[in-house]
Amino acid sequence: MNATTNTSWYRGVVVGVDGSEESLVALDWAACTADAHDARLTVVSTYATPPEPGPGTSRLVEDGRRQAHDALRVAMDRLDGRRPGNRTVQTVVLPGTASHVLAQLSRSSDLVVVARRRLGAFDRALLGSTSSALAAHTTGTVAVVPEGAAGGAPTRIRMGAGRSEEPELWSAAFTEAVARGCPLEVLHATGSDPITDAALRRGPSAGSWQGVVATAVADRAARWSARYPRVTCTTTNPPGDAVAALLDGLTPDDLVVVGGNSHGTLTGRLLRSVSGTVLRSAPCPVLVVHTHTARQTVSDSDAAPASSGRRAQGAAVEVHR
User: Where is this region: Disordered (predicted)?
Assistant: First the structure.
């Protein structure tokens, strides 16, 4: 395999566990992903620390640290001697909230994997969740795995394409399709928000604009397909809401790949981004790819696909074996 289609990851896969069944499902999926990319798997558990010391805080911290180590033992029992990526599994216990710790580790890894917990609407509105917070605030690529998702390789990958180039998003989707040996479906929904809907209905140019967008997405897919000839890629342009289109017909055996933009907590909850809504509702794992390069719209000149390399930033961790 040449360098442009290399699917090996050199910075590894990180998965957060807390001993729950949901986190063990995420662990299964992370181990399968590490195998697919010949990557090292690092299993991380965290424990809370009080902002200031006080009576009884040392006991609470020690209890939290012990529970974190217990969660790692449960995870290693689940792996049962497996060596994902043909490498020794690393286990790490770190102080802090799971979302903060994993966000920091995402800077020095290829992928962070986290479980999606079941929270009621009221609890989610007040407290959020580790998966939502991590997907919203990290700069790295995050996979959110719901309970009930298949732990093995996906049978189909569906990518949500926007009007801009988003080379990291396209690279991630095609790389996963090669590594997993499954087809890729590129989906771009027209009229995916109230403002776009109103603009498209305003005049006779609506149909031509939709055609321009559809052609641009198809051309982009053709360029990436030429770079990844082993991938069977199809494009669809359903009308209406992007979230509904992305979720339509999904099964636990699928994988959804969407772009993400880091934003503040309040902004994220008010805007309800497509990626955030999809990861809260999809029955399958959702890969959220944050882009770091300047975007181009469909009216800009076409550019060759960018490299799939990601920026590496150091992160110090305490490793326990």
Answer: 296-321
Whether domain 3-320 has CATH 3.40.50.12370: the reply is yes
The confidence score (pLDDT) of residue 309 equals: 36
Instruction: Find the angle CA(243)-CA(126)-CA(26) to the nearest 5 degrees.
Output: 60
Task: State pLDDT tens for residues 154-197.
Answer: 999 999 998 778 899 999 999 999 999 999 999 998 765 555 55
Residues paired with residue 265 on neighbouring β-strands, in sequence order: none
Q: Which two tokens stand for residue 61?
A: 């911290």
What does the alpha-carbon distance between residue 262 and residue 140 come to, in Å, rounded to a whole number?
Answer: 10
Is the pLDDT at 124 greater than 60, yes or no? no
- Higher local confidence (pLDDT), 9 or 53: 9
Backbone angles phi, psi at 319, to 5 degrees: -100, 135
Enter the pTM of the model.
0.80
What's the sign of the alpha-carbon dihedral 216, 168, 30, 286?
negative
Tokens of 162: 């926007």
Buried b (16+ CB within 10 A) or exposed e, 70-87: ebbebbbebbeeeebbee
CA 35 to chain centre: 17
